[in-house]
Write a structure and sequence with these properties.
This protein is of the alpha+beta class. The protein is built from 23 helices and 12 strands. A hairpin with a 5-residue loop joins β9 and β10 (about 495-500). It is elongated, with a radius of gyration of 32 Å. The model is unreliable at about 290-300 and about 315-330 (pLDDT under 50).
Length: about 575
């Protein structure tokens, strides 16, 4: 019977880790269903940020996680947190290796370790301060879910795709290893650090550096159901202490530090005497019978209580400061509404996106066109790891809402397909000096063909050009041009010829009319024209543009997303009336 709690914990943890990994492995770049990422949605920090965004489901998950902690203790750290489960696996491998090699466990793994509340709660306090002043920028570095998620997005997902390529005859779309680039030099060590500490000292990371563990430790100081020692039954065999991965069992005082216990129940399975889960009144101190102990020292002030009160004071002060220094949320004017990088549709604005996103990478693996890429400095320092739309890699599919479906933190709010198709996340601009229609006097139309909103169309326009082989550099065209768009340049062989600046030319044709040799010509070609009111900034035109390296269609990010207009088409009119024409 004593093995049942541990067996249940192991089964749940394995299922959670497998579902978590499956959510990040998208071999065929298919748009995922909402149920495929339930494990990611029940994580603590995503639920907290989702509640901050006003998502009702996230608030319900957050309340459920807090209730579980108050009733059972830190079961989240043992059953649900993927980084905690990974640490348990590493700790188990260490013990299996020791047994296989015939080694005895080190003394540090056998004895009770005194808590270090100062370090735990300083980390928690700094995280709270950073969250108020910098949004999710600090959480992206310390959130255990995000640390594990980025590793799965940047390493496990590409590895699974390449393995599938090697083992299957059907072709899959393998994500590029270079998607995270040099960021992997940060992502991988951040994931390996907790595992290295777990190999050395079990749940050392969770009980010293993890802010989620520190916060849940405060909530689980007196849970309703807790593991407790019966001094009358305990024989001090130390089996429970050897099994404890959190080093929280104090055999000397017959006490279990519930603020550090992760409820793995390994100690319950190992103990044959006096260690069992018990129901307690959370408002009263434990009242199990105790053996008389001579010269009991006076109780010292509880450092956890002092730390908790200090954190509450810091939080209150920070809240007042942040409210006093709040920024104006008014929508900027269209001319000022530009950002360094583009945030996904559903994020509402770049500042809001940076405040809520932890850069877990789930939307990056779910994006079917791979336009979402992890940012380095595109958003600035606050935007490390967070996704941005890289229109040189792909475009935002007109019918796709995958990123808003999978985002667990509320950084990308759920958006309907109809609303997404009218959300202007960026704005395209046409640079005629780079377009091959103007540059090479040839037809193209790639941008207009791929524009889903018909913001791009073509019209027959005049395209001036200069035949340098017959140009004598007489300078007549230069003096005639009203826009000063023509200049004489060297041809590299001690000669000169006229050159047209496409950004200034208005195709008036005066240069062709005055040219004595016929070098200046005006052709009639189909020229692209952009209607900015219809553009949603999806990047399809830029991605389709054949000009390299500088494309003729360039995208400028919107700092605050706007609503684009729809193309109004008049209904077709029957030219012969209501009667059948034949």
């Amino acid at each position: 019977m004593r093995n049942i709690p541990r067996l249940v914990r192991v089964c749940i943890a394995v299922a959670v880790l497998l579902l978590f990994a499956a959510g990040f492995i998208n071999l065929h770049n298919n748009e995922p269903a909402a149920w495929e990422h339930l494990v990611e949605r029940v994580q603590f920090v995503p639920a907290l940020l989702g509640s901050w965004s006003g998502a009702a489901y996230a608030l319900g998950i957050l309340i459920a996680l807090v209730a579980l902690t108050l009733i059972f203790g830190r079961v989240y750290c043992s059953f649900i947190c993927p980084l905690g489960i990974a640490q348990d696996i590493v700790f188990r491998l260490r013990r299996l290796m020791d047994r296989a090699l015939g080694r005895k466990q080190s003394a540090t793994m056998l004895r009770y370790a005194r808590p270090v509340p100062l370090l735990r709660y300083v980390v928690l306090g700094l995280t709270i301060l950073g969250a108020f002043f910098f949004g999710a920028a600090v959480l992206s570095w310390v959130d255990p879910y995000s640390i594990c998620a980025r590793f799965f997005a940047g390493v496990v997902n590409p590895l699974a795709a390449q393995t599938a390529d090697a083992s299957q005859k059907t072709q899959v779309v393998a994500p590029a290893w270079g998607r995270y680039g040099w960021l992997l030099a940060i992502v991988v060590p951040m994931f390996l650090l907790p595992l290295a500490l777990a190999w050395w000292r079990g749940r050392l990371y969770c009980n010293t550096l993890c802010p989620v563990g520190a916060l849940l430790g405060l909530l689980s100081r007196r849970p309703l159901l807790r593991i407790a020692m019966d001094p009358n039954g305990c024989v001090r065999c130390a089996a429970c202490a050897r099994a404890c991965k959190a080093q929280c069992i104090d055999l000397k005082n017959y006490r279990v530090d519930t603020s550090r216990c992760v409820n793995c129940y390994d100690c319950v399975s190992a103990c044959e005497h006096g260690l069992r889960p018990h129901l307690f009144n959370p408002f009263r101190s434990p009242s199990l019978p105790s053996k008389p102990s001579p010269q009991t020292p006076p109780s010292a002030p509880d450092p956890s209580r002092r730390a908790f009160l200090g954190i509450m004071a810091i939080t209150g002060t920070t809240t007042v400061l942040s409210s006093c220094s709040g920024q104006d949320d008014a929508t900027p004017q269209p001319g000022e509404n530009t950002a360094a990088a583009t945030s996904p549709p559903g994020s509402i604005s770049v500042p809001r996106f940076l405040d809520h996103c932890t850069g877990c990478g789930l939307c990056i693996t779910a994006c079917p066109t791979q336009v979402l890429q992890p940012s380095m400095l595109q958003f600035g320092v606050r935007g490390f790891f967070k996704p941005h739309l890289d229109f040189t890699r792909g475009f935002c599919n007109f019918d796709c809402t995958a990123c808003s479906t999978v985002c667990p933190e509320g950084a990308i709010l759920p958006i309907s397909r109809e609303n997404k198709q009218r959300t202007q996340i960026a704005l395209a601009s046409f640079h005629s000096e780079h377009c091959i229609v103007h540059r090479d006097q040839t037809e193209c139309g790639a941008c207009t063909e791929h524009c889903p909103t018909k913001a791009l169309s073509t019209f027959e326009g005049k395209v001036p050009s200069c035949n340098t082989s017959v140009c004598i550099a007489c300078n007549v065209c230069v003096q005639t041009c009203p826009q000063h768009a023509i200049s004489l340049v060297s041809d590299g062989h001690d000669g000169m010829h006229a050159q047209i600046d496409r950004s200034k030319c208005i195709a008036c044709g005066k240069c062709a009319r005055v040219c004595p040799t016929g070098a200046m010509q005006v052709k009639r070609l189909m020229v692209p024209v952009l209607n900015e009111k219809l553009c949603i900034g999806c990047g399809a035109c830029s991605y389709a543009c054949p000009v390299r390296p500088t494309r003729a269609m360039q995208i400028t990010a919107r700092a605050t997303h706007l609503t684009a207009e729809r193309l109004q088409q008049a209904p077709a009119v029957n030219p012969v009336g209501d009667e059948f024409p034949f």
